[in-house]
Amino acid sequence: VIRHRDVRASYYGVIDKFRLQVSEQSQRKALGKKEIIATLLPSAKEQQQQKEEEEKRIKEHLAESVFFEQTLCQPENRTASSGPSLLTVFLGVVCVAALMLPTLGEMESLVPLYLHLSVNQKLVAAYV
């Protein structure tokens, strides 16, 4: 267990290296070694606060520039897609319709014979 006892904001992002050496208890000769790189990061709560402060500073800085004011006033031309695409919905409807068609070999059906699907075709439709 490696513990960092002196945690300060000034140490965030500092890279430390640890070397692990494996050897038998009775011998001094090392069987192997590995260097581990560790970076001290702020906690999620501190990181969120830092992001909010940074965003606030950026917004205050950009509020002074004319460019920021112009981009705020321009309407957004892109439409936000909410939900599945039209192709996905169409494909889903086709697959459900394929599953409702009769299987090859069913004699008592009002559906024409060329619309009878094999079991493999229905499995593909079910998978899709």
Automatic annotation (TrEMBL):
InterPro entries the UniProt entry points to: MOSPD1/3 (IPR039283)
The protein, known as: MSPD1 protein
Subcellular location: Endoplasmic reticulum membrane
ATP-binding among keywords: no
Keyword flag Endoplasmic reticulum: yes
Gene behind the chain: Mospd1
GO cellular component terms listed in the entry, alphabetical order: endoplasmic reticulum membrane
Transmembrane segments: 86-105
Tree of life domain: Eukaryota
Alphabetically ordered keywords of this record: Endoplasmic reticulum, Membrane, Transmembrane, Transmembrane helix
Primary localization: endoplasmic reticulum
